[in-house]
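pasting for ref
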Amino acid sequence: MLKLGHIIYSNCFPPHAGIVTGKIPFPFALVEGIPTELNRMLHAGSVDVSPSSSIEYAMNPGRYLLLPGLSITSPHEVKSIILQSRAPMEELDGRTVALTSASATSVVLLRILLERYKKVRPVYTTFAQGIDDPYGRADAMLFIGDLALKTKPTIEYPHLFDLGKVWHEFTGLPFVFALWQVNYKKSIDKDLSVLYDIVVASKAYGLANIPELARSQSGRFGLPAALLADYWSSFSYDLTEFEKRGLLAFYAYAAEIGAIKKSGGLTFWEKGDKNGDIA
């Protein structure tokens, strides 16, 4: 039985809404986790398909295929990838920046924005979000997901930087946080065709019912319905040429800072015998 990963943060809910709510029949297994957990499971083959960190794809060239037309992309503000800081970003040179261990893509994005855009070199440390308390020992902290949505400025840490917004200021491009990636084997192709159609239908259901889903899922995520609806509406869940431009720019900068080797492009799964096409 195929296993589909599901990011537990609210940003993944709309494309999987039909599956999670049972509105779309789903004959496969759904495996929940945070992004870095699902990255590991996808790499190990313990899930077959997952919306996984966009950097996971670039860090493992040739290992995965991408499902076409699916992403979690911030065209402008993302609202849930937040750097909370004592000082402006350009004043963090040599200061301690704590990076959440829950995300791989956001960590590389922050490094690009600090090192390439703001021209600073902080000292990085890592913390387990929701478990460790980085306040006091770091000058800035990177939070992701629903915890980031709830982050408020404090007297000690008054600055909040939305990394989607800062990326757009830097490049003028959208930022792709996650891609539906396949640990592909020819033996799963038939089931994969079924699963792909289900995910596409689930996404269509979710995007067509955002206000109703925000009201019904507010308790699940501990967020007000109006905030959820606004948050979900700020994303693109597509993967058109527009999103691809932002993604490839991210990979180019990631290679510049040594986070990945030079990107080899994007390779998509297709129904039938056309797998391996590069865009």
